[in-house]
Write a structure and sequence with these properties.
Order of helices and strands: EHHHEEHEHEHEE
Radius of gyration: 16 Å
CATH superfamily: Gcn5-related N-acetyltransferase (GNAT)
Number of strands: 7
Bound molecules: coenzyme A
CATH topology: Aminopeptidase
Structural class: alpha+beta
Number of helices: 6
Helix content: 40-55%
CATH architecture: 3-Layer(aba) Sandwich
Length: 199
Amino acid sequence: MTALRFRRLTAADIPAASELLGLGMRDNPTHVQAFGDDPERRRCALTAMFAPFMHRQAVNGVVLGAFIDGELVGVAGLSLPGCCQPALMDKLRALPALFAASGPRGLWRVYCWTRIWKKRDAQIPRHGHLGPLAVAPKHQGQGIGSALMQRLCDELSARRLVGYLETDLAANVRLYRRFGFNVIACELVMGVTHWFMEL
Ligand SMILES: CC(C)(COP(=O)(O)OP(=O)(O)OC[C@H]1O[C@@H](n2cnc3c(N)ncnc32)[C@H](O)[C@@H]1OP(=O)(O)O)[C@@H](O)C(=O)NCCC(=O)NCCS
């Protein structure tokens, strides 16, 4: 019988968490647009992009992991007010691996996409920023993402914070609506619809 457990991740867990995020989010439409058709390149680019940011989030915010029999199968992050945007050092650390995986075109696309997110983020007063969130592909659709979301929403409520997130899939909008999030804006980013949601 499998046992699903949850715990807060620390800096030591971040390499495994970044790998899982890279794999879990590899096929999202935004990442296909940014990093191209090769799934392995997308996985590498995302893992490189997430590693420094997740490290900071584990230290300054909340990163939760879901485990089945000791194996990490889901990751969800919450950035606390003032800490949502990647720091300059995060960008510089990710740059070489991101460049190797996606080239100058990928870098430019990431810049354009994150600039839009940053501009919208700045319009939301003091908030807890949810994301990234991913479940390992073979475990998706089994309630793990919802259980992680519930725990992050409990964190928001305990800290009396407005919640905010972005997503690029209609199925995810449905998921987030179940936790009380409402769509506050939509925008095309690299030809992909992005939904901006608030709780
Ligand atoms: C989104 C995600 C974290 C949800 O976790 P999960 O454990 O699969 O979700 P749950 O089983 O708790 O809940 C299922 C609901 O999640 C949504 N969902 C989104 N992607 C899904 C997927 N690939 N498989 C199943 N459900 C998915 C649907 O709303 C679904 O409800 P429905 O069956 O009524 O349509 C996970 O599917 C995932 O990692 N997807 C790829 C990465 C991603 O899009 N991350 C979020 C970025 S904002």
